[in-house]
From TrEMBL:
Gene3D superfamilies: P-loop containing nucleotide triphosphate hydrolases. It comes from Corynebacterium occultum. The lineage of its organism: Bacteria, Bacillati, Actinomycetota, Actinomycetes, Mycobacteriales. It comes from the Bacteria. PANTHER family: ABC TRANSPORTER RELATED (PTHR24220:SF685), IMPORT ATP-BINDING PROTEIN (PTHR24220). This is Bacitracin export ATP-binding protein BceA. The gene is bceA.
Length: 259
């Protein structure tokens, strides 16, 4: 069956491989009564280990809310979000903070670097806060691969936007997290820098056995993924595997016509 003719997928179809993260009947409501807004409608989805998944959908579809709830950056109204076997709804504030620091990596549209710290200090900051020792060989491997070896003493203001996002990628990778979440990680970058960051994430999956989940509005960015899931009105309405740009664009166009 051609990809463009694939049946909508509600996210409940079992996937091969172990889930790095999953949502079970995940529901998110903002406000109450007539002014209430439902951002997620009992979503069920799994993100398989060692895969790159992109989340897409029209503005207001719930894609960022889904990622934020899955990553413990926001709490669900009901349902469950799991990282591995850990149910996030059972964690206290300190436990949630420790989980985000110790088991997850984050890359955002805004680079979230500390302006007074050097690139090296920004990369090692979460590991330093955790009181753990940085694996020097792994640090050197990551920063060399990302082209940062000659920029480690520079502060963010002395780096280009692409270099700053590479620092953010290195920070996410250096602790070897269970899963890396990216919220529009190429949103503030030019095409060359975007391609660099996406190649970094693709390599993290292919060579380092990482798991990557990003929210994006960019079909080109989504085409780097193994799988794309599409949201509309808080629900998963379609899914593509091994996606191509044209198929992604056609799928998005179909969703937008229905909305």
């Amino acid at each position: 069956m051609p990809e463009s003719e694939q049946r909508p997928n509600t996210g409940t179809t079992p996937l091969t491989g172990e889930a790095a993260a999953r949502a079970v009947n995940l529901h998110k409501q903002y406000g109450a009564g007539d002014t209430g807004v439902t951002a997620l409608k009992s979503v069920n989805v799994e993100f398989v280990r060692n895969e790159f998944t992109a989340i897409m959908g029209p503005s207001g579809s719930g894609k960022s809310t889904l990622m934020h709830c899955m990553a413990g950056l926001d709490s669900a109204t009901s349902g469950q979000a799991f990282i591995g076997d850990t149910d996030l709804s059972t964690l206290k504030d300190r436990e949630m903070t420790n989980l985000r620091r110790d088991r997850l990596g984050f890359i955002f549209q805004s680079f979230n670097l500390v302006p007074t710290l050097t690139a090296r200090e920004n990369i090692t900051l979460p590991t330093d806060i955790a009181g753990r020792k940085v694996d020097a060989a792994w640090f050197d491997s990551i920063t060399d691969r990302l082209g940062l070896s000659q920029r480690l003493t520079h502060r963010p203001a002395e780096l280009s936007g692409g270099q700053q996002q590479r620092v953010a990628c290195a920070r996410a990778l250096v602790s070897r997290p269970e899963i890396i979440f990216g919220d529009e990680p190429t949103g503030n970058l030019d095409s060359n820098s975007s391609r660099e960051v996406l190649n970094i994430l693709r390599t993290a999956v292919d060579e380092d056995n990482q798991t990557v989940v990003i929210v994006t509005h960019d079909a080109k960015a989504a085409s780097y993924a193994d799988r794309v899931i599409f949201l509309a009105d808080g629900e998963i309405v379609n899914e593509l595997r091994d996606p191509e740009i044209n198929t992604i664009l056609d799928t998005m166009a179909g969703i937008e016509r229905k909305n």
